Amino acid sequence: MQYFLAGGGGLLSFETGFGIWVLISTLLFLWAMNKWLVPPIMKALKEREATIKTSLESAEKALARAEEVSRDNEKALKEAEIAAQKIRKQAIEEAELLRTERIEKSKAEADKLLTDARHVIEQEKKRALNELRNEVAQLAVEGASIILKSELDSAKNRELVNSYIEDLTKSN
Amino acid sequence: MSKLMRRAAAILLFLLAYSPDVIAADATDATDVNNDQESVIDVMGKVSNHDYFELPWTKVYLPRIFLSEGEWHVYKSTKSAVDSGEFEVSEAGLVRTNGAEITLDMSISSHLIYVWMGLLLTFIITFLVGNRYKSGVGRTTEPKGILQNMFEVLFVFIRDDIAKEFIPHNKYEKFVPYLFTIFMAITFMNLFGLLPWAAAATANLTVTATLAMITFVLTQVNASKDHWRHVFVFPGVPAWTRIILTPVEVLGLFTKPFSLAIRLFANMLSGKIMIVCILGLIFVFTDLFGAYVGVGSGVFWVLLTTALYFLKVLVALIQAYVFTLLSAVFIGMAAEEHHHEHDETSVAHAQNVQT
């Protein structure tokens, strides 16, 4: 029965001396924990958590930056493609233009050459005709003078011949 | 003859349960039967504080220290105290032969050894792991090994889920060592109670009351002004209600640590008593119906005890957790600073918005 009586060394009694022992040992231990044992652990954990946090953050930042860069790259690529297409188109157009221009130019040149040639031919023809006429006139005169020398005065004959040549050109 | 039978039963049971507890119980039982016919098994003897430290194979008698008539009397055991002629054995323990009062009994008792073992184990583990953290393992790298990982799980659990959760954020850090210490120490003390020959120091009201007292003192020392205002002044209630509310609140200050102490104590004590009683039924049955019935029913009792052991492991951890958690809750409640003005304005603001 005495086990349940308070103060009699029973179960529900508070044993003062034992309590003092427990208190002293616990307080001493708590002091040691507070002073030496736990702070380095807390610090280490905190440091590690901070490291993890910062590295996570920086990784996230790096990821965001990489994404941005890739987006920029894509954009630049697209722009470059568009520009290239534009340039190509322009080049084709220019080439076309150049070609037509050149063709026209050469055509014109050829035309000019042709007309020049015709012109020259015409002139040559005229000159040749003139020359031929003169030659013929000379020949006729020489022939007539030879005849006249032999029979008539050359003045009357020349007139005669000239009118003949005139007729000749007319009929020509 | 019956003594022989009982001995045989104990040996059989030892093979079944591998529980030295039973043998020890048998020993006390045998001597009890010789001395008086009252009890077959000494249940209370298994849970009360002793002047010896029991090991499976022997008893180590512990020093007795007394303060009597302003003088310290130190003996290496109860026997040497009696031999010195200054003390004699009585029903209530040792008393002075000359009739003088013992002012203080500072004897090293078995439960104190278990308290020390609990604290020492906590110390060793914390020290070992702390050194690892100091050397950089776990600081810059991940924690390595079972010990450090287990330790970190518990430590981070105490820090994040108990301290940070219930104590205001600017103050929680200084309570982590305390909360972690009581959690670990109580866990170890509880688990020691699972050893059949050992006892749980937490099944002693003195231990739990002392721990609760530390929590109480910590609570009051770190209490905020608001805490005291809520105990004595009660902002926002009619003045006359203080006649009722103040005594209730003051009482409430003391019931909190009281409940802490009783909860842990009763849980640990009941578990131990239950196991001792159920195993003791073997001897009760042997005494009543003979050895065959006792041993035969023993199979059932041992199975029941095994189931109870699982429960006790769970209870040991849960009670340590509950004690720590409630300590944190009490400290947090007292340390919290309320912002009445803000609350009131926010409420008024909300009302304005509603209308």
Describe it.
- The complex is a heterodimer of chains A (172) and B (355).
- Chain A contains two helices and no strands.
- Chain A has one domain (15-171).
- In chain A, helix 1 packs across helix 2.
- Chain A has 172 residues and is mostly helical.
- Chain B is mainly α and 355 residues long.
- Chain B has two domains: 26-108, no CATH class; 111-345, no CATH class.
- Helices cover 68% and strands 8% of the residues of chain B.
- Chain B contains twelve helices and seven strands.
- Chain B has helices at residues 2-17, 20-35, 43-47, 78-83, 110-134, 145-166, 176-192, 205-221, 225-232, 242-289, 291-335, 340-354; strands at residues 52-54, 59-61, 64-68, 71-75, 87-90, 93-96, 102-105.
- In chain B, strand 5 and strand 6 (93-96) form a beta hairpin.
- In chain B, helix 1 packs across helix 11 (291-335) and helix 2 (20-35) packs across helix 10.
- Chain B is globular, with a radius of gyration of 26 Å.
- The N and C termini of chain B lie far apart (92 Å).
- Mean pLDDT of chain B is 82; it is low at 16-37 and 342-350.
- The A-B interface holds A 2-3, 8-23, 25-27, 29-30, 32-34, 36-42, 44-45, 47-48, 51 and B 44, 47-49, 65, 91-93, 104-109, 111-112, 115-116, 119, 122-123, 126-127, 129-130, 133-134, 138-140, 152, 155-156, 159, 173-174, 176-178, 180-181, 185, 204-207, 209-211, 213-214, 269.
Helices and strands, with pairings:
The complex is a heterodimer of chains A (172) and B (355).
Chain A: H1 16-150, H2 154-171
Chain B: H1 2-17, H2 20-35, H3 43-47, E1 52-54, E2 59-61, E3 64-68, E4 71-75, H4 78-83, E5 87-90, E6 93-96, E7 102-105, H5 110-134, H6 145-166, H7 176-192, H8 205-221, H9 225-232, H10 242-289, H11 291-335, H12 340-354
Antiparallel strand pairs in B: 1-2, 3-4, 3-7, 5-6
